[in-house]
Write a structure and sequence with these properties.
Blueprint lengths: L2 H7 L1 E6 L6 H18 L2 E6 L4 H4 L7 E4 L10 H8 L9 H8 L1 H11 L7 E3 L5 H7 L4 E5 L9 E3 L2 H12 L9 E5 L5 E7 L2 E2 L3 E4 L7 H5 L5 E3 L6 H18 L4 E8 L5 E7 L9 H8 L4 H10 L3
Parallel strand pairs: 1-2, 1-3
Antiparallel strand pairs: 4-7, 5-6, 5-7, 8-9, 8-10, 8-12, 10-11, 12-13
Helix pairs in contact: 2-12
Length: 310
């Protein structure tokens, strides 16, 4: 432990694991962040989050929290609200921004209202006219649960039968009766992501997956997925992409750090996909890759994320 780091940050609780469908990714992110915090000399307590977190947290005598939980319960404003109640500073976005970013449906509705570019969509349910939706959205769609991450529950559809099955598969990712599932036009790509760290825009990354789309396996385990960073855009296109991502990030009310995902449509226009308020920090993750291109080591990135929670 470093005396300087203890004076700067106090005792830090690293929250990871949890019970969401993204637990496996969170465990990997948490392990990498834990190693970095140890390298930095930070006094860190590792906490695999269970159902009794609120009762247990006071006993750790923490000064702040590093959130490495992905998905429901860690990235959706629930945990952030609890930490505010306990008066514990934490990394990343606040309650409202976390909740809004996690909900792709409401996020898209807000962007449409603001005139930011994001594709049209249909909200699916058991009464949907599958053929009519397909026709309206261009004949090929991507179906996704509105409140999942890591591409969980996502699939393509090009026929009415495939669309109904895709809706059922996406709806099955959550036992809740209230789960929202949306269909969006299938975009030809490419896909880009831009990380934001304390107001600084990091170099964009172009993602090239040989899978049907950039799915869970391609994101976290495949060595076939290619990442171009810098992404070989012209200076003007890079600037246009970065400014759009910053607008999207700010519109949701995000703070500290995060990542905005974008795809290109058939006309070559950028279309916003989503904002990630607790991006992955694994060996295959995008924010560490962008930080490296900007001259920041993984340890420096982790320290910076923690710093902006002060």
């Amino acid at each position: 432990m470093s005396k300087l780091m203890v004076e700067k940050f106090g005792r830090v609780g690293l929250l990871y694991g949890g019970t969401s469908s993204e637990r496996e990714v969170s465990l990997m992110s948490g392990a990498a962040i834990h190693q970095a915090l140890q390298n930095l000399g930070v006094d860190v307590v590792v906490i695999d989050v269970g159902e009794n977190l609120l009762q247990e947290l006071p006993s750790y005598q923490l000064d702040r929290v590093f959130i490495a939980l992905h998905g429901e319960g860690g990235e959706d404003g629930t945990l952030q609200g609890a930490l505010e109640y306990l008066n514990l500073p934490y990394t990343g976005s606040g309650v409202l921004a976390s909740a809004l970013a996690m909900d792709k449906l409401r996020c898209k509705q807000m962007w449409q209202g603001m005139g930011l570019p994001t594709t049209d969509f249909s909200l699916l349910d058991s009464d949907s006219d599958w053929a009519a939706i397909l026709e309206r959205l261009g004949g090929a769609v991507m179906v996704k649960p509105a409140c999942e991450g890591s591409s969980i529950g996502m699939s393509r559809a090009q026929t009415a039968e495939e669309l109904e099955k895709a809706w059922r598969d996406a709806a099955a990712t959550d036992s809740s009766e209230q789960i929202a599932v949306i269909a969006e036009p299938l975009l030809p790509g490419p896909e880009y992501t831009v990380a934001i760290l304390d107001g600084q825009l990091l170099p964009s990354i172009r993602i090239e997956s040989n899978a049907e789309f950039y799915d869970y396996q391609a994101k976290y385990f495949s060595d076939q997925t290619q990442y171009l960073c810098p992404s070989e855009l012209s200076e003007q296109r890079e600037q246009e992409l970065q400014q759009l991502c910053l607008q999207a990030f700010d519109s949701v009310g995000c703070r500290g750090w995060g990542r905005v995902d974008v795809m290109v449509d058939a006309q070559g226009q950028y279309q916003l996909l989503e904002v990630n308020t607790v991006p992955g920090m694994t060996s295959h993750s995008l924010v560490p890759m962008a930080a490296k291109a900007a001259g920041l080591s993984f340890d420096q990135l982790v320290e910076k994320v923690l710093e902006v929670s002060l």
